Amino acid sequence: MGYFHNVLVSVDQLGNAICGGNPDNTISARVGYFSQVNRSFTKWFWKTLEQVINFTFWPIDGPNHCQLAFEADPEEIFFDKHGDLFRALLSIIIVISCIPISIILYVVWLIKYLLGIKS
User: Using the 8-state DSSP alphabet, how is residue 80 labeled?
Assistant: First the structure.
């Protein structure tokens, strides 16, 4: 993809690294992975974050953004070994960033829908 997409992915990966994740993963892929494979008491946490992210990116990817991100790189290594503080930071970053992103994506989607523009 283009330059702008590459910069956004890099920022996403930086956010994941700051929150204790693999710096080669995006936040969506990390959340998708742990919401699918996690069997511990934190599964609810990952499922909740997955719903927030999937809602935000629905206009682009449909209802399974996190799963698609996770499945896009099946050889990737995912870890969540830094504990509750880093998970709390991750949830704050997700909520704060998803609010403006969802507003932008849904407004663009609505305009395209009203004008009959197919993506």
Answer: -
CA–CA separation, 59 vs 117, rounded Å? 13
Q: Divide the 119 residues of the chain into consecutive groups of 10 and give the mean pLDDT of each group.
A: 89 95 95 90 92 97 94 88 91 96 96 87
d(CA 83, CA 75) in angstroms, rounded, equals 24
List, as own/partner pairs, every contact residues 85-89 make where C-beta atoms lie below 8 angstroms and the sequence separation is at least 24, other chains included: 86/19, 86/20, 87/19, 87/20, 87/42, 87/45, 89/18, 89/19, 89/20
pLDDT of residue 74: 81
Output phi, psi for 8, to 5 deg: -65, -40
CA distance 100 to 113: 20
CA 43/CA 49 separation, integer angstroms: 10
Rounded CA gap, 24 and 77, in Å?
A: 9
SS3 for 102? helix
Q: Write out the H or E segment, with its range, that includes residue 11.
A: helix 3-18
